[in-house]
Amino acid sequence: MKAVVIRSFGGPEGLRTVEMPAPLPGPGQVLIATEAIGVGGVDAVIRRGALAAYGFREGHLLGSEVAGTVTAVGEGVDASWTGRRVWAFTGLSGGYAEQAVARVEDVVALPDGLSGADAVTLGGSGVVARFALEKARFAPGETVLVRGAAGSIGITAVQLAARGGAGAVVVTTSSAERGARLRELGATHVLDRAGNGGPDAPEGFDVVIDVVGGTQLPDFLDALNANGRYVAVGVVGGEPPADFGARLMRGFRKSVSFATFSSDTVPEADRRAVREEQFAQAARGELRTVVHAVLPLERAAEAHRAMDAGEVFGRVVLTP
Ligand SMILES: NC(=O)c1ccc[n+]([C@@H]2O[C@H](COP(=O)([O-])OP(=O)(O)OC[C@H]3O[C@@H](n4cnc5c(N)ncnc54)[C@H](OP(=O)(O)O)[C@@H]3O)[C@@H](O)[C@H]2O)c1
Q1: Sorted alphabetically, which Pfam families does this protein's record hold (predicted)?
Q2: Which one of 146, 153, 291, 313 would you pick to mutate in the ligand 1 pocket, going by the greatest count of ligand atoms within 8 A of its CB?
Q3: Is 274 inside any structural domain?
Q4: Are 194 and 234 contained in the same domain?
Q5: Neighbour count for residue 204 (Cβ, 10 Å)
Q6: pTM, rounded to two decimals
Q7: What is the per-residue pLDDT across 170-217, written as a single tens digit (0 to 9) for each?
Q8: Closest Cα to atom 3, ligand 1: which residue?
């Protein structure tokens, strides 16, 4: 089969399309003929070699989420999966290929009418948005800030906050054009990356869902209202300063809270139920996904260049 591997760590030019034997489904696994492959930020981090300490080597086959049709099942897996269209999490490898294996626990059947591209745009990120808002104990009427809203996590969080009756849905983004697109999805106020947004912007937030982290995180901590809750879900802007806890403590008399959130801590059955619900909503057009571009698998390097250049609004999808 055709697959894309990291020939050498570094820039996108280190990615290579190769021929390799198709994987076989092991016990508890299914084999999927892929129709759509999600390109995530973590793929670029692995490609740069930044996770070599965690065992990622040159030669690694990238990709963690795919959609396609189950063509074979391993020992112990119900044979009725064969022939079904599914979304699957493949771990941190194996997705950039014509065929991929996944644990059956990480496979969700797709409803009719949902494209593979939409499924891989929503599958991994939708649960993060949903459970991060739950972790923040978001309630109707509250002012929510989604920091780094132009990615697939933020795009879903904006819609869920708006639909959940937020008093205001505030976003940070880097351009007016992106701000306009986020308004169409439910944002009521648009700030720049530093949090400046003109005289109408809310001064404080009850909930912050933060995909960015980075050096400016403490400034957004300071913007929490009394009893505000801050949930960090990503670090696309890098690590926060080591002393950000000191700024958190300065908010002591406002009773603010800071939490991290990873979907890894959500029970498998809950993740599955939310994915099924969100896929059904997307198929009915009630939840929108934003596919930035669909490219052939062998143009994976181009997808990575667009990500590295910060050009992607939503998600890039590869097709085999
Ligand atoms: N918590 C979990 O369970 C979980 C699960 C999966 C992934 N993640 C994490 O989530 C992140 C990826 O999420 P995503 O795909 O939604 O995000 P993304 O598309 O990679 O980035 C979201 C937006 O952040 C803004 N941004 C990028 N760099 C920035 C910077 N230096 N400063 C300020 N803003 C910046 C960009 O928008 P603008 O240019 O418009 O500002 C970008 O579109 C990763 O950190 C990943 O590890 C977490």
Answers
A1: ADH_N, ADH_zinc_N_2
A2: 153
A3: no
A4: yes
A5: 13
A6: 0.97
A7: 999 999 999 999 999 999 999 999 999 978 999 999 999 999 999 999
A8: 262
